[in-house]
Design a protein that fits this description.
By secondary structure, this protein is mostly helical. The chain is 64% helix and 5% strand. The protein is built from 5 helices and 2 strands; from the N terminus they run αααββαα. It has a two-stranded antiparallel ribbon.
Length: 110
């Protein structure tokens, strides 16, 4: 008699667990509709086909037209920006090594 009662209890608990899981999952299905983008957003497919006619300057980030951008690229090809001083390059290299070492050995404080 006790064994039958234990089996009924197990069946009841499993029924409660399954129905609770189903309830939780079904309530989260409705939230997928909330995650949709707003209707005024332009779809990505349309943005991919759009021709970009404006650009940004690689020097100061100002907006340029396509013709100005091509002209600036040509100027940079003829006279590239000056190289950094070798001492400054070495300092930057050492700072990068220091940053990497501190990621692996945070207890080092140098």
């Amino acid at each position: 008699m006790g064994r039958v009662k234990a089996i009924k209890t197990i069946k009841l608990l499993s029924l409660i667990l399954i129905s609770g899981t189903f309830f939780v999952l079904s309530s989260s299905w409705r939230s997928a509709v909330i995650a949709l983008p707003p209707p005024e957003d332009t779809p990505e497919e349309i943005l991919r086909t759009k021709i970009i006619i404006e650009a940004r300057s690689p020097i100061d980030g100002k907006s340029l037209t396509a013709a100005e951008y091509i002209q600036l690229q040509a100027q940079l090809q003829l006279a590239p920006p000056p190289k950094l001083d070798p001492k400054i390059r070495e300092q930057i290299f050492l700072l990068r090594i220091r940053k990497t070492l501190l990621q692996f050995f945070p207890f080092l404080n140098f």
